[in-house]
Amino acid sequence: MPIDDLQLNLRNLTTDDYPQLKPLMDRVYHDIGGAWPKLTIDRLINEFPDGQIVIEDDGKLIGVALTAQVDYEQFSNPHRYDDLIGQRETIQNASDGDSMYGIDVLIDPEYRGYRLGRRLYEARKEVCRQLNLKAILAGGRIPEYHLVADEMSPTEYIDKVARKELHDPILSFQLANDFQVKRLLRKYLPEDEKSQGYATLLEWNNILYEPAELMLESRPTQVRVGAVQWQMREFASVEAVLQQVEYFVDALADYQSDFAVFPELFNAPLMGLQERADQQDQIAAIRFLAGFTERFKSEMSRMAVAYNINIIAGSMVEVGENGRLYNVAYLCHRDGSVERQAKLHVTPQERRDWMIEGGEALQVFDTDAGRIGILICYDVEFPELGRLLADQDMDMLFVPFWTDTKNGYLRVRHCAQARAIENECYVVLCGSVGNVPSIENLDIQYAQSSVFSPSDFAFPHDAVMAETTPNTEMIMFSDLDLSRLTIVRNEGSVTNLKDRRKDLFDLRLRDWSHKLGSLDSEDS
């Protein structure tokens, strides 16, 4: 059949198709009994219409996929073909089943070579996703096994087919369509002499499946993130800064954002409220700034509740119980709770000029819009941290940052984009702009806030979901589809997290709680 002459159409099977279906099945299944009776097909269409799929060429039936709805627990265990068949060749369809069972996939021999079987398999998978069913199961014949049955066991044959040392027209095709062999079925179809009665129990898992009892509790898969590219400038009072913060929170909430993100040390201009002479003492200035942190935490937590939005409150300087200084990001949940993530790697400037120290804890935070991690600026340049968060099923990584020059910004940007690719997550980069020459270490800023995605077909071609105009105060929005992360982690062009060689290396976070306790006691 010349490809230019094809007029293909994918649709559901109807009872009117039987006059074409019968001769097609008789032709393809001549060695195992031919076509199903019309009564069987009519009942299957009536009970599970979505599962019966055909391909036609200009009205001619050329491909068919027949499917039943079944109970996973029953048919994921050893069974025979007859367990699926009732009296008078009636296929036992379970309308309350949680899975699909592939009964037949057949293509007109004249149309082989056009990958039409793959189309039917993909259509069947889409039905499984749309109906929120757990898996597709199938008993797969191994029709070439009889040729080597005297030389090897069926399990050896299956292993060789999986390794592509042998080719089996059915098993090789199913493996190429992401089905996994779960077990060997004995006496599955005794009259199948070519397979010697054996079959493989194949399974394709719907990675988006949500059990019915959990669906009401499940988080949304669509998340909107809003970020503030904040202008550093002189402020006359703490109230003026908080007024500007609330303005942006209000604006982001008006667009139904799930998150509002602020940059690292966004309230640093408040150091300018000191007496001019005191500003020259940078350690005194940064401790002065830390004196406002509790008020900002309280006010931004209030805004999170009042505007119904989760706030990544940039980062602020915190005085620890031991009197030491830390650079800390606060997550203000819209339910009123507040959590913290300290910067773990401090820059040489932070350590030298401000005596800020690195924190010791790293965690993933559960929110009502996904599992998130927070790495402050320099931390994102250390790939181990992102991987540790990914191992805790992080969906989104937030990176509040503050850089003065473009080359410093590009270090953060390129590392953030690498974290999105290697950990198959979204990364939200949020920075500050503007110049405050009157305050030490705040004289220049450079930023272009961005949202990065994994690099695969489900995402933008350059893996950039959104970005701001460089060095301009503005807000940015991006809609993130968390279900796409699930798909790319399991079925992407590459699957970085799954393909790690854990037999060669591993990564773990040390528990420093005991050491921190001893340090606190020594300091006291």
Automatic annotation (TrEMBL):
MF term (GO), any: hydrolase activity
Keyword hit for Disulfide bond: no
Domain N-acetyltransferase, first and last residues per copy: 8-220
Transmembrane regions listed in the UniProt entry: none
Domain CN hydrolase: 223-482
UniProt keyword annotations, A-Z: Hydrolase
Gene3D superfamilies: 3.40.630.30, Carbon-nitrogen hydrolase
Superkingdom per UniProt: Bacteria
InterPro entries registered for this protein in UniProt: Acyl_CoA_acyltransferase, C-N_Hydrolase, C-N_Hydrolase_sf, GNAT_dom, UPF0012_CS
Classification via Pfam families: Acetyltransf_1, CN_hydrolase
Family: Belongs to the carbon-nitrogen hydrolase superfamily. NIT1/NIT2 family.
Protein name: Hydrolase
Organism of derivation: Halomonas huangheensis
